[in-house]
Amino acid sequence: MLLGLVFMIAGLFMLQNAVLATVVSAIVFGIALLIAGGFEIAQAFWAEHWSGVLWRLLVGALYVVGGAILVADPLAASVLLTLAFAAALIASGIMRIYLALAHWDRFGWLLFASGVVGVLAGLVIVLKWPLSGLWVLGLVVGIDLFFHGAWWLASGWTARASRPA
What we know:
Layout: H1 2-16, H2 18-46, H3 53-72, H4 74-102, H5 108-127, H6 136-162
Helix pairs in contact: 1-2, 1-6, 2-3, 2-4, 2-6, 3-4, 4-5
């Protein structure tokens, strides 16, 4: 339950200042990419066989470069990430609409609604871009943290209530 409260408070904090949350998210993601890229490069040399070593080095280098860009200029990187996020929402929404029509008998209407929301959300982001790049990621992470925390809180409360006294 405590973890749920912490997530919810963190989510509310991020929602209160979505721009700061976007910058912090970009920096944290950049650091994670730097670390992952470093490990990928090191692992390429530790492998017992040399097959595919160039691909692993390339992937590691791309992670490191991407991470460095995110850390060096998180605002500019957030603007580009937001555009990629909008494109992914639109593509995913279109695919969900297609799948909904193909499988209408299996709650297709719900998948259709989900697809429409995805397409509309992506279009709103694109139409407000590049300004949306300053707040969208922080908003999405804040909402995600809040609802994930609510689930942890409800789950803990239910487990506690069902426990024998």
